[in-house]
Amino acid sequence: MNDSPAIALHGLRKRFGQLTAVDGVTLEIGRGEVVALLGPNGAGKSTTIDLALGLSNPDEGDARLFGGTPRQAIVAGRVGAMLQGGALLPTLTVRQSIELVAAAHRHPLPVDEAMERAKVTDIARQRVAKLSGGQMQRARFAVAVVSNPDLLILDEPTAAMDVEARHVFWESMRAFTEEGRTVVFATHYLDEADSFADRIVILNRGRLVADGTPAEVKAVVSGRVVSFALDAAPAGLHDRLATLPGVRDVERRGERISIQTADSDATLRAVLADYPAAHDVEVISRTMDDAFLALTHDAAEPALQEALR
Ligand SMILES: Nc1ncnc2c1ncn2[C@@H]1O[C@H](COP(=O)(O)OP(=O)(O)OP(=O)(O)O)[C@@H](O)[C@H]1O
Fold first, then answer.
1. What is the per-residue pLDDT across 40-71, written as a single tens digit (0 to 9) for each?
2. Does the chain have fewer CB atoms within 10 Å around its N or its C terminus?
């Protein structure tokens, strides 16, 4: 057995008319990695996934799965996918849908085990046409895992799931990845990426703008926000605050002032020394949301992105 990466994308480019949806993406994902693919709407996540699976052909570059073509990997039963547009046959029951896929694969999981993993045992006899959005997602997950794949690619797997269902979903995924399988999932839930992935890849306008561990990605916006209220803002407040130690940016909304700072202790001391009337003080750590916005902002600093590639 060769030890090629689970996914190797080299210089992938895909155009739709004037639009370049994927613009030179090069990315390797090793076996056993759990990777979150993030990006704003239209960033090119689904198109990249389609190219990786060989569902559409790139204009430039190539995609390899386990060292072979996507088709070879899929025929060998090594890939399970849950895609946004993927539909199940409405007249079949959930169990029949899973059985159908299991029958087409060489080394499927037992159908009952796949149903247990995807938590669909209770809806096994329901027709697909009658499923709710969240139930449908679970059924599609069961269909993706029953082939017993080495690589699982999921496009927004928890869209339409309620909070409880999302929790259950990630628990069953955790068990799945503990067996050393590779998982790539696109999501808009940054908290899911933060807590579940061991690597985060961010796309923006078809380009890879960040690639690192959750901690590395969040470190892009290291520092904190010092925020406070000031009832009557003196003239020149904004300019004065901008010169205090550690300050990177100052924002004011009504009487509330928020300062992004690299050194919250020094900034806070200086603020209280200069403006003793400041009250309702908060010091807030930056989150994955902040990192995401900083990296995908139109005016995102190239240097910021450079650190994560
Ligand atoms: N078949 C197509 N024909 C024309 N344009 C397309 C096609 N598929 C995607 N696009 C365009 O390519 C861009 C990237 O779309 P894609 O679906 O890959 O983004 P995404 O990151 O998955 O977005 P979302 O988070 O909204 O699902 C978008 O501007 C989209 O409108």
1. 999 999 999 999 999 999 999 999 999 999 99
2. N
What value of ipTM does the predicted structure carry?
Answer: 0.97
Pair (147, 251) in one structural domain:
no
55 CB within 6 A, ligand 1: no
Q: Is there an atom of ligand 1 within 6 Å of 296 CB?
A: no
Query: CATH number of the domain that 240 lies in?
Result: 3.30.70
Query: Which protein residue has the closest C-alpha to ligand 1 atom 18?
Result: 44
Q: How far is the CA of 287 from the centre of ligand 1 (A)?
A: 27
Q: Do the domain assignments include residue 174?
A: yes
> What is the domain range of residue 229?
223-285
* Tally of structural domains, the chain: 2
Integer Cα distance of 241 and 239 in angstroms: 6
Q: Quick check: helix, strand or coil at residue 175?
A: helix
Instruction: List the CATH number of the domain containing 86.
Output: 3.40.50.300
Residue 146 CA to ligand 1 center (angstroms) comes to 28
Strand 60-65 to 247-253 pairing: unpaired
* Count of beta carbons in the 10 Å neighbourhood of residue 106: 9
pLDDT tens sequence across 208-221? 998 998 888 877 76
Instruction: Tell whether ligand 1 has an atom less than 6 A from the beta carbon of residue 43.
Output: yes
Q: Is 140 in contact with 83 (CB distance < 8 Å)? A: no
